[in-house]
Design a protein that fits this description.
The chain is an alpha+beta fold and 492 residues long. The protein has three domains: 258 residues, no CATH class; 68 residues, no CATH class; 104 residues, no CATH class. 58% of the residues lie in helices and 8% in strands. It has 15 helices and eight strands. A hairpin with a 7-residue loop joins β5 and β6. It starts with 7 loop residues before the first helix and ends in a 20-residue tail after the last helix.
């Protein structure tokens, strides 16, 4: 009996398809790492995007919060009624009060007067890239959560696969062959950041996959209704009565918070079904020195206290679930932790970039054709941050309503197609230099054209200039795979 072997070209095409799928997963993880490092300080990016807005300091009086309701309702009199109204209280990182409805968001001053529309759409876009890859929220978060599980497995198996982890913990051959330098940076960063990286990736996976878990529980116990599942953690809402009613007394609710819970710090005031008989008020308040994002205190429309959800002192599972957000985003212990989380995000980007480059070079040495994949990876590594910079320019030039999501994905997609068709057009050095120039130009033009008055915004621009300088420098760790005309022999 004769065995028919598959065509060699078919096998190579199959392997190429397999490699492309792996490249896609690596690209998404790299994108999540870059945007994750950025949104650690998303409050500061909001101030950078709208640098000269009125600021209220770290306190908004109950009377000003109450006055803002009438102001916003008057502004939106010709718009559909909102199901929820949010007042974001000012904080140290973002000393601006914002009122958000289902229609728009408005900055208010310290007297509750609307001063301008909130329009930090670029910052929101970067956050959406990290949280759900700009996909529909449920499916996007499930995908990001699944990538978090994959990443955690890669981190653990990568360390276990290194037999000399202790001896080589501080070995960096940065002056040797670029391939050795990449391998050392890849391995060392993976080891040095393992513990915090696992905490970040697993908490992110928990947040993302919680949607899938809640859906399963809803199907099993609630007939498909997901709301009762989330109510076990975040509390439920009373039955809605849509009959008209005056605006709620949130000033009294805030005063009661100050009197009865002086050790908490209100971050949000949420009005459910405003100006209806079924309306009620929830105040989300942080608890100092706690990892939970806060607890929810409920009040009726007259401002009388009804009770709290119990996130701060409820079941241990509820407290643990509410603690994943700060743990994942580094929103605790102030600026030192934020800087550390930025470092972890950038380290993960370097680990992903160098790991995929090492893999592509290894395949090249074994005789596989990788020119196109290497060119596409160059576009990923340098093109993703460049696309983020260009979308910031697009937002400043085109206004807050410019379509950033489609512009980003279409531009990146076309660049990847171009690299696949003409790989010689994607040299790593040229792409790196273009990115450095674009980042530097962004910081300089932002300072010159917008003239921000806030020193905190100056620091972002100075950080952009420093980043541009680092990108410009030729380093073995950042020198990505360059397309070559032919593969090296396996013994190379």
């Amino acid at each position: 009996m004769t065995t028919v072997k598959p065509e060699k070209s078919f096998v190579k095409r199959a392997l190429s398809g397999h490699a492309s799928i792996g490249l896609l997963a690596g690209a998404l993880i790299y994108l999540i790492a870059i945007t994750g490092a950025m949104i650690v300080v998303h409050d500061r990016w909001q101030r950078w995007e709208q640098p000269n807005m009125v600021e209220t300091g770290e306190y908004l009086s109950p009377q000003a919060a109450q006055a803002s309701l009438d102001q916003v309702f008057a502004r939106e009199s010709d718009l559909p009624a909102t199901a929820h109204l949010y007042i974001r209280m000012p904080t140290e990182d973002l000393p601006r009060a914002v009122v958000t409805t289902d229609n728009k968001a408005w900055y208010i001053d310290d007297e509750g007067q609307v001063v301008e529309r909130e329009a930090h759409t670029w910052t929101e876009f970067v956050m959406a890239l990290h949280i759900n890859l700009t996909l529909p929220i449920v499916w996007g978060m499930i995908l990001v959560g699944a990538l978090g599980v994959v990443l955690a497995a890669l981190l653990v198996t990568g360390v276990l696969a290194h037999p000399r982890i202790i001896r080589d913990a501080f070995r960096l051959r940065t002056r040797h062959d670029p391939q050795l330098a990449r391998a050392d940076w890849h391995n060392r960063l993976g080891v040095w950041t393992l513990a915090p990286m696992l905490a970040i990736t697993l908490s992110g996976a928990f947040i993302g996959l919680s949607y899938a878990g809640a859906g399963v529980l809803a199907q099993a116990y609630e007939g498909g209704d997901i709301e009762p599942v989330y109510a076990t953690i975040f509390g439920d809402e009373p039955e809605h009565d849509p009959a008209p009613a005056p605006a709620p007394n949130i000033a009294r609710a805030l005063e009661k918070m100050q009197q009865d819970f002086p050790d908490t710090f209100p971050t949000y005031v949420v009005v459910h079904d405003p100006r209806t008989q079924g309306q009620f008020v929830q105040i989300i308040a942080e608890h100092p020195r706690r990892l939970i994002y806060g607890d929810a205190y409920s009040f009726d429309s007259s401002g009388e206290y009804l009770g709290r959800v119990g996130i701060s002192d409820g079941e241990i599972g509820r407290q643990a679930a509410a603690s994943t957000y700060k743990l994942h985003f580094g929103d605790f212990a102030g600026l030192p932790v934020e800087l550390a989380y930025i470092g972890f995000g950038l380290a993960l980007a370097v680990i992903t970039a160098t790991g995929t480059t090492l893999w592509l070079r290894k395949r090249q040495r074994k005789g596989f054709e990788t020119r196109r994949l290497q060119a596409m990876w160059v576009v990923v590594v340098w093109g993703i941050p460049l696309a983020l910079v260009l979308t910031a320019w697009l937002r400043f030039v085109g206004g807050a309503d410019v379509p950033l999501v489609s512009s980003f994905w279409i531009g990146l997609g076309l660049a990847l197609i171009g690299a696949a068709v003409r790989p010689e057009w994607a040299p790593a050095r040229g792409a790196r230099n273009v990115l450095a120039i674009a980042i530097a130009a962004t910081g300089i033009l932002h300072l010159i054209v917008l003239r921000p008055s806030d020193p905190g915004v100056w620091l972002i621009d100075l950080a952009l200039l420093a980043t541009a300088g680092l990108v410009w420098q030729r380093r073995a760790v950042s020198e990505e795979a360059r397309p070559t005309s032919q593969a090296q022999p396996a013994s190379a």
